Amino acid sequence: MDFEIPDELYYTPDDEWVLAEDDAVTLGVTDFAQQQLGDIVYVELPTVGDQLESGAAFGVIESVKAVSDLSTPIAGEVVAINDELVDQPEIINEECYGAGWIIKIKPADPEEIESLLDADGYRKIVSKRSV
User: CB neighbours of 39 closer than 8 A, spacing ≥ 6?
Assistant: First the structure.
């Protein structure tokens, strides 16, 4: 199976990607995750202003194969949600690292991102699972 793992992003062992921006981080699911899920048919999103704890579930992603919780690797406040996913959840399948982003969080502790995996670390985890 061939999947994309951009070098400039951070990753979680739970197949989520994190893009560190100026004062917020953007979260989504990886190419590996969306391929494993198959056709995504529903995404449940949090509300802007929600306070999230690190590791807490903030929503649900549902595909024709499975239902999975979405959890945040970083504590903070939800500052944006991708409203387009409500009517077009398949955007995640089409462009998981771009238009398929899920939420943006203002981190409570920006240093927390340093505990995430880099692209090489995530590749090692995924390569063991995709054998």
Answer: 63, 64, 90, 93
Please check whether residue 70 is in contact with residue 60, taking contact to mean a CB–CB distance below 8 angstroms.
Answer: yes
The per-residue pLDDT for range 52-78, each reduced to its tens digit, is 999 999 999 999 999 999 999 999 999
Beta bridge partners, 40, equal 63
Torsion of CA 102, 49, 117, 12, to 10 degrees: -60
Tens digits of residue pLDDT in 73-119: 999 999 999 999 999 999 999 999 999 999 999 999 989 999 999 99
Q: How far is CA 115 from CA 11, 12, 35, 73, 79, in A?
A: 10, 9, 25, 9, 22
Report if pTM > 0.70.
yes
Among 84, 109, 112, which Cα is nearest to 28's?
A: 84
Q: Phi first, then psi: what are they for 120, rounded to 5°? A: -65, -40
